[in-house]
């Protein structure tokens, strides 16, 4: 709408004024905030922006290609894609503790991003080197890190964030979404031409599938989980609730599949199978602090289950998680 249009004009002018003819680096995760920040900054300064997309190998099916297709293919932005999946898998081998996994993933992510940012800072032919680091920080993040929100005494899960990176890299900080709430960021994303499916995507944790594969992370497990999860998400998007006219994807706040590294017995044709189990998780929540499991239609669960078992060789049992938060958490790790 016109209001968002004039907001974009103002934001673009402000970014141009701040940055001048200098160059900017931005870490692209595929999430809403960094994507909207990238689209806005690209609108403002075009080729002076370079996005760095670190693929830790724990992303969803085709996610890396989708991010590249959108930012490089459609927006024609510079994007450096770093495939670090082997490094992450190597460092995660043998590690089963959820917090330890989070710490390893968080540390490697920062290492890989920093190494790439250092290169961009140094510059090369045609690039004089970046002076800015852009981040998709939004207003609630600002409030949270300012300590205005009361912090719980016990940390249930350590969420890795990339605080302090600009200082460590000696770069100036550019945060064009600092004053916006999530809804406004989404509105801005739509106005900038990002697809609805990306702007209204469920949140995805930084450690990715690393906390959705229980215990040790293995490539085999990640590959099975990616395929099962894609089927669940596709079915949620294809199933519309007649009462509201909305899809079950939009009626849930977060939905995903969890890989359980245990085997159970099944039967397929004339033969016995002995394969892995997955759990489907779908919740409704307004703040992610408490959440109810979603009362998905049986037909949707039935179709998802039969598709996963028939299409993903290696999984022969699908369960549905009927635990609310608290006492369960949304993620299983
Ligand atoms: P829990 O599992 O604690 O999740 O009920 C609440 C919300 O936080 C997300 N989550 C994370 N996000 N890094 C993140 O960036 C993490 O380590 C992490 N752990 C949980 C979770 O997906 C849910 O939206």
From TrEMBL:
Any GO MF annotation of the entry: ATP binding
Entry binding sites for ATP: 29-35
Entry keyword set: ATP-binding, Glutamine amidotransferase, GMP biosynthesis, Ligase, Nucleotide-binding, Purine biosynthesis
Pathway: Purine metabolism; GMP biosynthesis; GMP from XMP (L-Gln route): step 1/1
Keyword Calcium: no
Keyword hit for Ligase: yes
Residue intervals of the GMPS ATP-PPase domain: 2-201
Quaternary structure, from the entry: Homodimer.
Function: Catalyzes the synthesis of GMP from XMP.
Protein name according to UniProt: GMP synthase [glutamine-hydrolyzing]
Residues of the full protein shown: 202 to 534 of 534
């Amino acid at each position: 709408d016109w209001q968002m249009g004039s907001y974009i004009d103002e934001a673009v002018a402000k970014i141009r004024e701040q940055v001048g003819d200098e160059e900017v680096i931005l870490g692209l995760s595929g999430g809403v905030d960094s994507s909207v920040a990238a689209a806005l900054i690209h609108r403002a300064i075009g080729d002076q922006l370079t996005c760095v997309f670190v693929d830790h190998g724990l992303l969803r099916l085709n996610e890396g290609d989708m991010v590249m297709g959108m930012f490089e293919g459609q927006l024609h932005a510079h994007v450096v894609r770093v495939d670090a999946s082997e490094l992450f898998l190597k460092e995660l081998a043998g590690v089963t503790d959820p917090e330890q996994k989070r710490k390893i993933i968080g540390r490697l992510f920062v290492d890989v991003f920093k190494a790439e940012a250092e290169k961009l800072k140094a510059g090369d032919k045609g690039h004089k080197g970046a002076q800015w680091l852009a981040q998709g920080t939004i207003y609630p993040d600002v409030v949270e890190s300012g300590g205005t929100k009361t912090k719980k005494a016990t940390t249930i899960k350590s969420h890795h964030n990339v605080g302090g990176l600009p200082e460590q890299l000696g770069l100036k900080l550019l945060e064009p979404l600092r004053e916006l709430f999530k809804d406004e960021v989404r509105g801005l994303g739509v106005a900038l031409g990002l697809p609805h499916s990306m702007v209204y995507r469920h949140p995805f944790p930084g450690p990715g599938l690393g906390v959705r594969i229980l215990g040790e992370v293995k490539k085999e497990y990640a590959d099975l989980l990616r395929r099962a999860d894609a089927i669940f998400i596709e079915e949620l998007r294809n199933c519309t609730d007649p009462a509201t006219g909305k899809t079950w994807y939009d009626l849930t706040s977060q939905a995903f599949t969890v890989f359980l590294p245990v085997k159970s017995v099944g039967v397929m044709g004339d033969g016995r199978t002995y394969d892995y189990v997955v759990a489907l998780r779908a919740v409704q929540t307004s703040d992610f602090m408490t959440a109810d499991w979603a009362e998905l239609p049986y037909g949707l669960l039935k179709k998802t289950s039969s598709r996963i078992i028939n299409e993903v060789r290696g999984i022969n049992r699908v369960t549905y998680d009927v635990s609310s938060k608290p006492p369960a958490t949304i993620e299983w790790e």
